[in-house]
């Protein structure tokens, strides 16, 4: 995904996860970093979101920077910093939205997550020509050697990373919602003992 959009999407996902974890957050008034849901969100950020962003920087760097700068001229430490920043924005969004989620204030959580995602989406719509083009920085600005994302390796990467992100979001959402304590399941032996 493009680097300018990644942190905005990450904050939105963090806010979504905070809303899904609102039950646990409301029951637990301890430090946020000790919450089970925070650990799940951090795992999603570290093992799913950050690698997805890193893939585009490593293999389609000029596209990841939306052809604003030549990727080859950027030090790898700067690439790494941007990727880690994007990944860190998932738990950051979770932390920012957690207070509103604890209080069951959906409008506040929706604002915390929706404003960055909405702003990023508008930015991407404006940049749709850059998003739809697979090329190097020189090819894009020189008007030669470009191809549609649909017919390129970049397009296949977008499909695979998008699918991976969707699976990761589903897993995280399920794990957070599944974190609510359940009553113990009665076995046949327990039922027999009570009847006796």
Total number of distinct structural domains: 1
**Class inferred from helices and paired strands:** mainly alpha
Low-confidence stretches are: none
Q: Mean pLDDT, nearest integer?
A: 90
Q: What does the model show?
A:
Helices cover 71% and strands 2% of the residues. The protein has 196 residues and is mainly α. The chain has one domain. The longest helix is centred in the middle third of the chain and has 27 residues, at 76-102. The termini are far apart.
Give short descriptive properties of this protein.
elongated, mainly alpha, 196 residues
Topology overview:
Layout: H1 6-20, H2 22-27, H3 36-59, H4 61-64, H5 76-102, H6 106-126, H7 128-131, E1 133-134, H8 137-142, E2 147-148, H9 153-177, H10 188-195
Antiparallel strand pairs: 1-2
Short characterization:
With 196 residues, the protein is mainly alpha-helical. The protein has 10 helices and 2 strands; from the N terminus they run αααααααβαβαα. It has helices at 6-20, 22-27, 36-59, 61-64, 76-102, 106-126, 128-131, 137-142, 153-177, 188-195, and strands spanning 133-134, 147-148.
């Amino acid at each position: 995904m493009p680097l300018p959009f990644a942190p905005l999407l990450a904050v939105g996902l963090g806010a979504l996860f905070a809303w899904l974890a609102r039950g646990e957050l409301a029951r637990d008034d301890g430090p946020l970093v000790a919450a089970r849901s925070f650990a799940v969100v951090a795992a999603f950020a570290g093992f799913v979101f950050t690698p997805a962003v890193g893939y585009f920087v490593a293999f389609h760097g000029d596209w990841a920077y939306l052809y604003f700068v030549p990727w080859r001229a950027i030090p790898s430490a700067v690439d790494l910093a941007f990727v880690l920043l994007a990944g860190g924005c998932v738990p950051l969004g979770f932390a920012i939205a957690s207070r509103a989620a604890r209080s069951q204030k959906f409008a506040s959580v929706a604002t915390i997550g929706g404003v960055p995602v909405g702003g990023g989406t508008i930015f991407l719509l404006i940049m749709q020509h850059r998003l739809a083009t697979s090329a190097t920085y020189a090819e894009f600005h020189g008007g030669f050697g470009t191809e549609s994302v649909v017919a390129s390796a970049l397009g296949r990467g977008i499909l695979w990373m998008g699918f991976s992100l969707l699976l990761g979001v589903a897993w995280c959402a399920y794990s957070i919602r599944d974190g609510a304590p359940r009553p113990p399941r009665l076995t046949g032996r327990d039922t027999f003992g009570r009847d006796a």
